[in-house]
Amino acid sequence: MTSKKNRTAFYKQPAIIIFTLFIAGFFLVQHFSRQMISDEPLVLTKANPPEIIMYSTQNCPYCYIAKEFFNKHNLPYTEYDIERSEKHMKMFYLLGGRGTPLVIINKEIIHGYDERLMRKAL
Predict the structure, then answer these.
(1) Are the beta carbons of 106 and 50 closer than 8 angstroms?
(2) Are 50 and 78 contacting, i.e. CB atoms less than 8 angstroms apart?
(3) Which domains are delineated in the chain?
(4) Under 8 Å CB-to-CB from 72, ≥6 apart: which residues?
(5) CA pair distance 30, 68, nearest whole angstrom
(6) Which of 12, 18, 24, 47 is the most buried (most CB within 10 A)?
(7) Dist. CA 74–CA 55, nearest whole Å
(8) pLDDT one-digit tens code per residue, 72-85
(9) pLDDT beneath 70, residues of the chain
């Protein structure tokens, strides 16, 4: 009888551990995303408002950071989730997409999250 209880407890522990790691990872991404975005004021030099398109995936931490950057500076952007749309996946690859996010600011393509390049394109 005790061996049956031990088996039940063993099978429940991995789920708890995985859930805990998922929650910890979520909060770490949020914490580090705030640190990765500089507090330097943003100066729009090319277009006001700028035309921003971002190809992303739902679970991409750098996509999350890019969205936080746009939201922090009140920049309007259009986001396309390439995992949910075959049309946007094809466009992502046509634009030379290798990884997410792929950001287009005023027709300038930026691969990955790079705040310096994003600021320069604005």
Answers:
(1) yes
(2) no
(3) 52-121 (3.40.30.10)
(4) 37
(5) 9
(6) 47
(7) 19
(8) 988 999 999 999 99
(9) 1-17, 19-22, 24-36, 38-39, 43, 47
